[in-house]
Amino acid sequence: MKQAMTPEEIKAQKPYLDWSLSEREYNYIAEELLGRLPNYTETGLYSAMWSEHCSYKKSKPVLRLFPNKNARVLQGPGEGAGVVDIDDGQAVVFKAESHNHPSTVEPYQGAATGVGGILRDIFSMGARPIASLDSLHFGELDNPTMKMKVQDTVKGIGDYGNCMGIPTIAGETTFDPCYSGNLLVNAMSVGLMDQKHLQKGTANGIGNAVMYVGAKTGRDGIHGATFASADFSDENATQRSAVQVGDPFMEKLLMEACLELIEQHADWLVGIQDMGAAGIVSSSAEMASEGQAGMELNLDLVPQREPNMSAYEIMLSESQERMLLCVVKGHEADVQAIFKNYDLEAVVIGRITAGHDYVLHHDGQEVCHIPVSTLTDDVLEEASEEREPARLKAAKQAPAWVPGIKDAGATLRQLLAQSTIADKSVFFEQYDSMVRTSTVVGPGSDAGVLRVRGTRKGLAMTTDGNGRFVYLDPEIGGKMALTEAAANLIATGAEPLAITDCLNYGDPTDPEIFWELHHSVMGMAEACRVFDTPVISGNVSLYNENNGQAIHPTPMVGMVGLIKNLDRVIPMAAQHAGDAVYLLGQTGDDFAGSELQKLLTGDIAGALADFDLQATRDNFHRLLAEMQAGHIASAHDLAEGGLGVGLAEILFKTELGVNLTLTLTKDQFFAETAGRMIVTVPVEHTAAFEAALGTAVTKVGEVTNSHWLQVRLADGQVNENVQALQTIWEEAIPCQLKSKD
Amino acid sequence: MRLAVIVFPGSNCDLDLYEALHTVCGADVEYVSHKATSLAGFDGVMIPGGFSYGDYLRAGAIARFAPVMKEVIRLAKAGAPVFGTCNGFQILTEAGLLPGALKKNDSQRFVCKTVALEVVNNQTRFTHQYTAHERINLPIAHADGSFYADQATLDQLEANGQVVFRYAEENPNGSLNNIAGITNAAGNVLGMMPHPERAVEAILGNTDGLRLFKSLLTPAAAD
Amino acid sequence: MKVRIFVTYKQSVFDPQGETIKDAIHALGHQGVTGVTVGKFFDVTFAPETADVEAAVQAIADQLLVNFNMETYTYQVMEEK
């Protein structure tokens, strides 16, 4: 059986519809691109390469809104990962990727292979991965199934990263019912390299070898790419078998071998790419397309784990821990020797040919012969219908919700036990956050900070996404996601460099969902321009639905910043009694989408107030200058739970307290207005600090020795023992995980 | 003193150990492949943490058959200092250079955090720069760190002063007698689950591990 | 010829995984379950001409598959298909 169906049978029976290729696309391929009917293998290749996951055919018009260049960007979107200049001939390389669908089906392997995939993207660029981050969104921890999914996801991330020896140093974990049927598991990896080692996924030079390295190919994950481009329902639960299994030990060897080849023998190598979604076909076709070359592969030479695999299965398998190399003719044996030293196979499976055709042989027959560009460049972009969601119009007309808090202390205690706010150490202690001995600030802070060994530089990094705000107002929510990430980096003393993103949405053929995508990207893009943080890599994950119920639109921002002087890393926690406490930014009645609203009403609703991005950015940069001048003792970005929760967080694990007088109301104490920070300043620097920040800051009190959180508000007060608050915050999640519900 | 940092497939704290010794302590240290068949010219052996051979089968079980282990055993028997942290400790027990075994943590989870330790024996070549019963803090990062030995072996370890480090507050893995690190009877082989190499620089927030390497590199007068 | 080798903790060694699973079984309502032991098994296939398979099995278990500080093993010779 060479081909399961004849071209005529394919035309008549339309199996491609099940592979998410539309009839319009099929006809276009047959009539316009090929001038003949594609055979079974070819049809399969098109369906994978033309999936949203590989081609971004639906989201591309929206993605063009993002800025992706500035003076520091060395490589923007389109390669394995983006690359940014960090001076001294060094570069930071990073990318985030979603693994939502595999993780929903099988959380452990889905999360593990998500980490594995993003690490390969980093080292395929020639960079050594130095840190992992994650952004996890689960359903509420109120049922045994979700508890197990959460623990399996965390274990999957930990087992893979720990074995690889890459520290997981930051991330976020949130809980909301909208993610119960469709988890979001976004993994980000950050690498460091000398710019001279920069690689590309390209293939050219007639006669050069196409080499396959790493694990053998099996039937796992076939059509993962199209699988990720269709939504979940209980009916297709049986189809949910396409999950790959990760082998971090194999990947560790693969990483060391690839980096040795790149760093020591770059002249043998034309290009290198990870075999990610759509496996061999996407990596090989993209490399040939990038190099404007022809390519001929013999699939009989592909190392196979299972007998009798068809050409279609070999090409589309998403078996893990594999890379594709284009090697200069004559150096095949040299490359093999390097991999052999790590007990890895490296096999020549084809050659670069003249012309631009993509030709596959299997079992002595030619099974595919098409122009390369038809797989990669000729994809039909899809114009999507969009419509403002009805709920947004209604929210703008409805009266604003007023919390009406009576006892602010009691509210603070309740908020600290909310799972999205509560201590996550039960999760992040399962990740090795210190291996490679460069972690200056580990998990549980505003952002993770690594030193760049051998320099005075540091890199700060964070992941942030808050679907609730984006759900209530995609454009303002998009701006808030960027602002939150920038605030997290600034709080550590870092200057934001660039971002990667995972755009997690529901079914884009629903006009309201496409509108959410479009408008949130508009907001993010505007904020990217203001903060001068271009988008250098990322991915789009659509169809995040279960039984027709979409997740909140949840764009995740992964941002990296540069710290020029490691002596000026700013801690989150208050440092000394007597330091002055300042609030940066103005506080409004921003309760829509807040943790407070969720706590008190069980849901979120309302309209978001817009805010001044440019003023926020200017405040942040004046604060950064004060940090670099050595005037700041601590800084903490205010997010979920507002000022109340932020104050508790800067006192946890210290022996200090605060004594403050605020003009805010009890309600406003928990408002989530964007762009605010709580900053502590030693008394000797307050004059300089106030002169620099002007009206952007308000002095609200001082740090005390008492370990009490004492705040006088306009209409009440808070007087809470910090140790008691910390106990509530620390015990909330372990307690929820243990309860028998 | 010339030291070898052994690199197994899957070792991942080799860099950390090398940097602690070389960059921080200025020691004469070299990476040595698991395939090496001679350790001639080396005065001591450092076995790093990580996941040698993916921890497949049992942590450390396959590494012990690597060619270099014959030489490690030869040096250990000759009285040279041999140090293993984390996976290195697991390898040393699997190779029979240290008694007992490391089981999966009682929690069934990997755990990475900083824990309090007591320096139980400061009379070893690895700990003489600590004071007797000193409290220190070191990071741990492991899934299989629960020390187990039968009662007779435990009694012997305690009686001989072979228990060098003990968890001082929380026992993070279920180790018997709260054991965090032990030596062999001769005192020249030390295995411990905590990572002293992660605690040697102020910029990373902890220098409690530094004196372990300083002890090793500057033998006490009694040695 | 195929031999299945079972490796478990010795009876005297605490098996937290087994305890956790036992608790989960109780939560499912099977109160009659009084103990769970977790182990692993290895299916080892020998070439037909191998002499003294049982001696080989014992050597393999002793040298590699079992850590006698905490584990023990049994094995069974599987039926030929």
TrEMBL record, chain A:
<feature type="binding site">
    <location>
        <begin position="98"/>
        <end position="101"/>
    </location>
    <ligand>
        <name>substrate</name>
    </ligand>
</feature>
<keyword id="KW-0658">Purine biosynthesis</keyword>
<comment type="function">
    <text>Part of the phosphoribosylformylglycinamidine synthase complex involved in the purines biosynthetic pathway. Catalyzes the ATP-dependent conversion of formylglycinamide ribonucleotide (FGAR) and glutamine to yield formylglycinamidine ribonucleotide (FGAM) and glutamate. The FGAM synthase complex is composed of three subunits. PurQ produces an ammonia molecule by converting glutamine to glutamate. PurL transfers the ammonia molecule to FGAR to form FGAM in an ATP-dependent manner.</text>
</comment>
<dbReference type="InterPro" id="IPR036921">
    <property type="entry name" value="PurM-like_N_sf"/>
</dbReference>
<keyword id="KW-0963">Cytoplasm</keyword>
<feature type="active site">
    <location>
        <position position="53"/>
    </location>
</feature>
<dbReference type="InterPro" id="IPR010074">
    <property type="entry name" value="PRibForGlyAmidine_synth_PurL"/>
</dbReference>
<dbReference type="Pfam" id="PF02769">
    <property type="entry name" value="AIRS_C"/>
</dbReference>
<feature type="binding site">
    <location>
        <position position="501"/>
    </location>
    <ligand>
        <name>ATP</name>
    </ligand>
</feature>
<keyword id="KW-0436">Ligase</keyword>
<dbReference type="GO" id="GO:0005524">
    <property type="term" value="F:ATP binding"/>
</dbReference>
<dbReference type="Pfam" id="PF00586">
    <property type="entry name" value="AIRS"/>
</dbReference>
<dbReference type="InterPro" id="IPR016188">
    <property type="entry name" value="PurM-like_N"/>
</dbReference>
<feature type="domain" description="PurM-like C-terminal">
    <location>
        <begin position="206"/>
        <end position="361"/>
    </location>
</feature>
<dbReference type="InterPro" id="IPR041609">
    <property type="entry name" value="PurL_linker"/>
</dbReference>
From TrEMBL, chain B:
<protein>
    <recommendedName>
        <fullName>Phosphoribosylformylglycinamidine synthase subunit PurQ</fullName>
        <ecNumber>6.3.5.3</ecNumber>
        <ecNumber>3.5.1.2</ecNumber>
    </recommendedName>
</protein>
<dbReference type="GO" id="GO:0005737">
    <property type="term" value="C:cytoplasm"/>
</dbReference>
<dbReference type="GO" id="GO:0004642">
    <property type="term" value="F:phosphoribosylformylglycinamidine synthase activity"/>
</dbReference>
<dbReference type="GO" id="GO:0006189">
    <property type="term" value="P:'de novo' IMP biosynthetic process"/>
</dbReference>
<dbReference type="GO" id="GO:0005524">
    <property type="term" value="F:ATP binding"/>
</dbReference>
<keyword id="KW-0547">Nucleotide-binding</keyword>
<keyword id="KW-0658">Purine biosynthesis</keyword>
<keyword id="KW-0436">Ligase</keyword>
<comment type="function">
    <text>Part of the phosphoribosylformylglycinamidine synthase complex involved in the purines biosynthetic pathway. Catalyzes the ATP-dependent conversion of formylglycinamide ribonucleotide (FGAR) and glutamine to yield formylglycinamidine ribonucleotide (FGAM) and glutamate. The FGAM synthase complex is composed of three subunits. PurQ produces an ammonia molecule by converting glutamine to glutamate. PurL transfers the ammonia molecule to FGAR to form FGAM in an ATP-dependent manner.</text>
</comment>
<keyword id="KW-0315">Glutamine amidotransferase</keyword>
<keyword id="KW-0067">ATP-binding</keyword>
<feature type="active site">
    <location>
        <position position="197"/>
    </location>
</feature>
<dbReference type="InterPro" id="IPR029062">
    <property type="entry name" value="Class_I_gatase-like"/>
</dbReference>
<comment type="subunit">
    <text>Part of the FGAM synthase complex composed of 1 PurL, 1 PurQ and 2 PurS subunits.</text>
</comment>
<feature type="active site">
    <location>
        <position position="195"/>
    </location>
</feature>
From TrEMBL, chain C:
<protein>
    <recommendedName>
        <fullName>Phosphoribosylformylglycinamidine synthase subunit PurS</fullName>
        <ecNumber>6.3.5.3</ecNumber>
    </recommendedName>
</protein>
<keyword id="KW-0963">Cytoplasm</keyword>
<keyword id="KW-0547">Nucleotide-binding</keyword>
<comment type="function">
    <text>Part of the phosphoribosylformylglycinamidine synthase complex involved in the purines biosynthetic pathway. Catalyzes the ATP-dependent conversion of formylglycinamide ribonucleotide (FGAR) and glutamine to yield formylglycinamidine ribonucleotide (FGAM) and glutamate. The FGAM synthase complex is composed of three subunits. PurQ produces an ammonia molecule by converting glutamine to glutamate. PurL transfers the ammonia molecule to FGAR to form FGAM in an ATP-dependent manner.</text>
</comment>
<dbReference type="GO" id="GO:0004642">
    <property type="term" value="F:phosphoribosylformylglycinamidine synthase activity"/>
</dbReference>
<dbReference type="GO" id="GO:0005524">
    <property type="term" value="F:ATP binding"/>
</dbReference>
<dbReference type="GO" id="GO:0006189">
    <property type="term" value="P:'de novo' IMP biosynthetic process"/>
</dbReference>
<comment type="similarity">
    <text>Belongs to the PurS family.</text>
</comment>
<dbReference type="InterPro" id="IPR036604">
    <property type="entry name" value="PurS-like_sf"/>
</dbReference>
<keyword id="KW-0067">ATP-binding</keyword>
<keyword id="KW-0658">Purine biosynthesis</keyword>
<keyword id="KW-0436">Ligase</keyword>
<comment type="subunit">
    <text>Part of the FGAM synthase complex composed of 1 PurL, 1 PurQ and 2 PurS subunits.</text>
</comment>
<dbReference type="Pfam" id="PF02700">
    <property type="entry name" value="PurS"/>
</dbReference>
<comment type="pathway">
    <text>Purine metabolism; IMP biosynthesis via de novo pathway; 5-amino-1-(5-phospho-D-ribosyl)imidazole from N(2)-formyl-N(1)-(5-phospho-D-ribosyl)glycinamide: step 1/2.</text>
</comment>
